[in-house]
């Protein structure tokens, strides 16, 4: 069946891909690191060449393919992402025709091959079709960045953040900052560099500074202090 969502260059989308049977493959650090690597390599017009280089050079690292990637063009801009135990979310903008489809196909195929070989298994890793939703307003764009960056709280703290019912933001923030598998630190620390993400200015420029963005997350997740007494 054809995908109902038609991706348009210059437009923003929420992409969501879940493992079959909700298998928590990304509780394994090596699997998660490999998926994050795939986010970088698959977002390239020369991704096939880069993956071929890695396959032919067993000791090669991501740094060794940096030159190949530097000579290529991005298929998409990844503004925000998070890798959860059994799925991932990304906020992206299509840069080239069919860029999103090419990126997701390459990324999911790469990590599936890696896990299949390691675990001596066969077949797809993710559900047959990734989910997508067009971002049709600035309010949705900002909220999606919040939703992606707070998503790890589901298992790090509690799902109560979804109902604005968490307390003690400082502790919550530490949990989020120490979670390596998201783009949050690039939004909270101007000196943090993450080669996966790009074109983040459309979000960042709507906040005075990093602290302002942090308060945006805090105000959503925390319970109104007037409603409780410690």
Which range best describes the helical content: under 10%, 10-25%, 25-40%, 40-55%, 55-70% or over 70%? Answer: 40-55%
**Count of β-strands:** 4
Order of helices and strands: EHHHEEHEHHHHHH
Q: CATH superfamily of the largest domain, please?
A: Transposase IS200-like
N/C terminus separation: 55 Å
CATH topology (fold) name of the largest domain: Alpha-Beta Plaits
Radius of gyration: 18 Å
- Based on Cα principal axes, name the global outline: globular
Instruction: Output the number of helix runs.
Output: 10
Model regions low in confidence, pLDDT < 50 over at least 5 residues: 225-230
Mean pLDDT: 90
Spatial order of the strands in the main sheet? 2-3-1-4
Give the percentage of residues in beta strands.
Answer: 5-15%
Number of domains: 2
Q: What structural class is derived from the secondary structure elements?
A: alpha+beta
Do you know the CATH architecture of the largest domain?
Answer: 2-Layer Sandwich
Largest sheet: 4 strands, antiparallel
CATH class of the largest domain: Alpha Beta
């Amino acid at each position: 069946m054809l995908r109902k969502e038609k991706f348009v260059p210059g437009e923003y989308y929420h992409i969501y891909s879940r493992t079959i049977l909700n298998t928590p493959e990304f509780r394994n650090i090596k699997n998660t690191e490999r998926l994050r690597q795939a986010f970088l390599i698959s977002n390239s017009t020369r991704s096939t060449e880069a993956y071929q280089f890695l396959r032919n050079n067993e000791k090669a690292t991501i740094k060794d393919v940096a030159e190949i990637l530097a000579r290529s063009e991005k298929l998409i801009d990844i503004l925000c992402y998070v890798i959860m135990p059994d799925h991932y979310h990304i906020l992206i903008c299509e840069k080239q025709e069919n860029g999103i489809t090419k990126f997701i196909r390459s990324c999911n195929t790469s990590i599936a091959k890696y896990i299949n070989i390691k675990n001596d298994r066969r077949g797809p890793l993710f559900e047959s079709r990734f989910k997508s939703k067009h971002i049709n307003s600035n309010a949705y764009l900002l909220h999606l960045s919040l939703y992606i960056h707070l998503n790890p709280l589901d298992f790090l703290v509690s799902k109560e953040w979804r109902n604005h019912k968490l307390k003690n933001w400082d502790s919550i923030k530490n949990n989020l900052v120490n979670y390596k598998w998201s783009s949050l630190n690039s939004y909270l620390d101007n000196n943090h560099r993450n080669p996966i993400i790009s074109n983040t200015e459309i979000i960042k420029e709507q906040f005075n500074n990093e602290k302002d963005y942090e308060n945006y997350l805090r105000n959503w997740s925390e319970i109104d202090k007037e409603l409780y007494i410690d």
